[in-house]
Q: What sequence folds into this?
């Protein structure tokens, strides 16, 4: 899940802040310029020290820092951040308290472009999107036309592709959003 917010903090000023729980990092402004954003590992959220220019890492309206992640055996959320009662892990850790080293294989995008990747302890799994069939590494859909929005370009380009062309370009379109129409 990615949360992007422009919370009003302080005297009506706004700060760019985004949070990627799946990949275990957040990013924000480090000064009053919106041109320079810095990425931080998740455990820098809620650590009591202000990393973002206006403190969005410590003071958010959504997914608030809480201290109720402690388990019955007394173990605490570590290598991550406790948000709304759930412990979320830094990249490289997993388990209920983020206490187990675990690689997030999903960041290498191992699944088909039409599949969702789920990181698990010691492994990962791929599941085809609704409307698609396959083992998650190769998914086939019934839709004939797709809109493709290229994510990494400054001005996203929307292209329309037929199925054959899309399959030919499968390798080169891993960083795009796909919409079936
Ligand atoms: Ca912090
Ligand atoms: Ca894993």
A:
């Amino acid at each position: 899940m990615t949360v992007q917010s422009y919370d009003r903090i302080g005297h009506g000023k706004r700060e760019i802040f985004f949070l990627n729980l799946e990949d275990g990092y957040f990013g924000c402004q480090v000064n009053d310029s919106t041109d320079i954003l810095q990425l931080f590992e998740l455990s820098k959220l809620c650590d009591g020290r202000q990393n973002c220019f206006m403190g969005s890492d410590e003071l958010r309206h959504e997914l608030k820092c809480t201290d109720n992640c402690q388990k019955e055996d007394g173990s605490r959320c570590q290598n991550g951040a406790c948000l709304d009662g759930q412990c979320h892990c830094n990249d490289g850790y997993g388990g209920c308290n983020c206490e187990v080293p675990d690689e997030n294989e999903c960041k290498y995008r191992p699944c088909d472009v039409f599949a969702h990747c789920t990181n698990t302890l010691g492994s990962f799994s791929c599941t085809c999107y609704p409307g698609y069939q396959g083992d998650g590494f190769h998914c086939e859909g019934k839709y004939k036309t797709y809109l493709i929005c290229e994510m990494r370009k400054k001005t996203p380009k929307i292209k329309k592709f037929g199925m054959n062309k899309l399959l030919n370009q499968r390798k080169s379109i891993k960083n795009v959003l796909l919409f079936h129409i």
The radius of gyration is 19 Å. The CA atoms of residues 40 and 130 lie 33 Å apart. Residues 104-138 form a domain with the Laminin fold (CATH 2.10.25.10). DSSP finds one helix and 17 strands in the chain.
